[in-house]
């Protein structure tokens, strides 16, 4: 009877250790999942920030292009005026 009681205690100890081991595995899996979720959230924030920066850069590029086109038109007009002035002065 005594051997049976000791075996029962040993079995209970093994079962308890197994449950604790399983709980440790669950805790580790939960921690890993939480870490992965945080990493994904950080990646999403980084992507959103990059997209915002890209939109700002595109807007700046569009404004620079518009300014360059305006400068080109002004330069063309100035060249046309200079050309007409040269033609007029050569006629005199």
UniProtKB/TrEMBL annotation:
Q: Does the keyword Membrane apply?
A: no
Pfam families linked: Alanine_zipper
Q: Which PROSITE patterns match?
A: PROKAR_LIPOPROTEIN
Question: Where does the signal sequence lie?
Answer: 1-19
Database matches in InterPro entries = Oprl
Region (Disordered) residue ranges read 32-92
Instruction: Give the highest taxon in the source lineage.
Output: Bacteria
- Per UniProt, the ranges with Low complexity bias are 39-69
Keywords linked to the UniProt accession: Signal
Q: Basic and acidic residues bias located where? A: 70-86
Task: Identify this protein by name.
Answer: Lipoprotein
Organism of provenance: Marinobacter salinisoli
């Amino acid at each position: 009877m005594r051997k049976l009681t000791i075996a029962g205690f040993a079995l209970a100890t093994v079962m308890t250790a197994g449950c604790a081991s399983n709980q440790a595995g669950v805790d580790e899996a939960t921690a890993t999942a939480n870490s992965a979720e945080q990493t994904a959230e950080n990646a999403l924030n980084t992507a959103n920030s990059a997209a915002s920066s890209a939109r700002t850069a595109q807007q700046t590029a569009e404004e620079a292009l518009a300014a360059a086109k305006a400068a080109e038109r002004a330069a063309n007009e100035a060249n046309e005026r200079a050309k007409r002035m040269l033609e007029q002065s050569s006629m005199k």
